[in-house]
TrEMBL record:
Membrane topology category: Multi-pass membrane protein
Listed name of the protein: Claudin
Gene from which the chain derives: Cldn1
Locations listed in the record: Cell junction, Tight junction; Cell membrane
Chief localisation class: other
Cellular component GO terms held in the UniProt record: bicellular tight junction; plasma membrane
Entry keyword annotation includes Membrane: yes
Amino acid sequence: EGLWMSCAMQSTGQIQCKVYDSLLKLESSLQATRALMVAAILLGLVAVFVAVTGMKCMKCMEDDQVKKMRMAVFGGVIFIIAGLAALVATSWYGNRVARAFYDPFTPVNTRFEFGSALFIGWAAASLAILGGAFLCCSCPRRETSYPPTRGYPKNAPSTGKDYV
């Protein structure tokens, strides 16, 4: 059973999937999980476009490097928000599966276990948060109060009489 359809495996090994009949018949937690996943996907797409605008290799906003770097940081923040939305959705659904599995009133033949979609969702959320954190680390640094670095003084050509 997933967010979008319910599947059943037959004893012959065939899997039959059926899309949920009505959106209004679904539990509120399932509807909220769907909404979070859709929001995470849309936020991820927006984050890609914003972060690409802030890349150094792009010609867009080439004249102001500080604004360009801020766009990359803003894209990273959106990635983190998208990753958190996906993480909440997958964890919420995983909690639902675990509670139903350990519920003594759930029939044995209708108990569900964690599927590959949950693990993919957790990995995708983790990667989105990690990528957003990396983009946020590219924040432009403020000017330091240190004096500017000076090179070594250039030596005058030796006349040959400079012995010690």
